Amino acid sequence: MIQQVTRGIKISVETHFEGMFYKNYRMHFAFGYRITIENQSNDSVQLKSRFWKIKDALNKTETIEGEGVIGQKPVLKPGESHTYQSGCLLTAPFGSMSGYYNMVNFTSTKKFKVKIPSFKLSAPYALN
């Protein structure tokens, strides 16, 4: 598990390989990840949007931006957490993801970014 804390918001990431399949005459590798966002600060916060940078071993980079996570913009009071699962497809058996969440602090009304720690994606059979 990878973890990082930014301004009292702890991000924990777990990954898993889901399998491979052919699509458009190319092999694709499916990875899943589970993220827990924990509010360790003294203020209530809300996740507003996300930014991801996804890289694979073939030097292909994809960026993704969007509102919330899985259609939700969770509000976290001090001590609360939110967990969600998602995934991505790579055209190589190795890759990585990193990014950040745009959040707002309800006490100060200030917006801030919470770093998502960089994490590796790898098909277990490819490690030998």
UniProtKB/TrEMBL annotation:
Coiled coil: none annotated. Residues 3-128 form the ApaG domain. PROSITE patterns: APAG. InterPro entries: ApaG-like (IPR050718), ApaG_domain (IPR007474), ApaG_sf (IPR036767). PANTHER family: OS05G0170800 PROTEIN. This is Co2+/Mg2+ efflux protein ApaG. It comes from Christiangramia fulva.
